C-alpha cells in the first residue's frame, strides 16, 4: 500500500491539543458512496471521533460537495416518544468537508486517487489555521452526544463525567441544557463512588457546562473523599 501522510505537531508548549485529520477509510467494507473520513482526536483523553465523507453523486462520478454529518446535541428534540439515538440522528448537522477544513489540491487529489485505487491510502493532518469550524466545539458536541447515548443505555461511569469535565474545564463558550436528561444518572453514579479531591473541579465543570442543577455537598459527608486535613465540600 502507498500511504501519503502529512503531519503537524499535536502539542502546544507541552499541553496536549486536539487533532483533526482527513484520511482514507479504515474499513474497506464500506458503502460505495463513502470516499474518505474525518478523524477528530480529543486531546484530553486521546479518544477519536470518526465521520464518513460522502460523495455528492458517485454514480455520476461527482465527488463534491463531500457531505459530512456531525452531531448537534443542542438541537435534539425533547420529545419523550423518541429514544436518544433517534433524537440525535434527527438533529445531525448537514455539513460538507469544505465547511470543516480549507480545501486544497493535496486533499482533493488524495481523495480522487483513493476512489480510483483503494491502495492509495492517505492521512492528512489539518493544522489549526486550515480549520474552518472550531475543533474544540465539534469535539465537545460529540462528547455530549456520547454522554447522552451512554446514559440512554445505562453505561455511564464516573470516568465519563470526569473526562468530560476535564475537556470543558476552561470552556465558557459551549453550554447545554441537559439537567432533565442527565441529573438523576449523574447523581446516582457519583453517590456510589468515592470522589478524590482532584476530581471535584472536573465534576463541577461537567455540571456547569451541561446545566445540571444539583446540591451534592452531602457527598463530602457520605463518601470517602481524599482530602488533606479538613472537610471538603463539593461547591455545586
Q: What can you see in these coordinates?
A:
By secondary structure, the protein is an alpha+beta fold. 34% of the residues lie in helices and 18% in strands. The chain folds into two domains: 2-132, no CATH class; 156-222, no CATH class. The chain has a five-stranded mixed β-sheet with strand order 1-9-4-5-6, covered by helices on one side. A two-stranded antiparallel ribbon has the order 2-3.
Q: What is the topological layout?
A:
Elements: E1 2-6, E2 11-12, E3 15-16, E4 19-23, E5 34-41, E6 48-54, E7 67-70, H1 84-90, E8 93-96, H2 97-100, H3 105-116, E9 120-125, H4 135-152, H5 158-167, H6 179-192, H7 200-210, H8 219-222
Cα gyration radius (Å): 21 Å
Order of helices and strands: EEEEEEEHEHHEHHHHH
Q: How much strand?
A: 15-25%
Helix content: 25-40%
Shape assignment: elongated
Summary keywords:
236 residues, alpha+beta, 2 domains, 5-stranded mixed sheet, two-stranded antiparallel sheet, 8 helices, disordered N terminus
A few lines on this structure:
With 236 residues, the protein is α+β, with helices and mostly antiparallel strands.
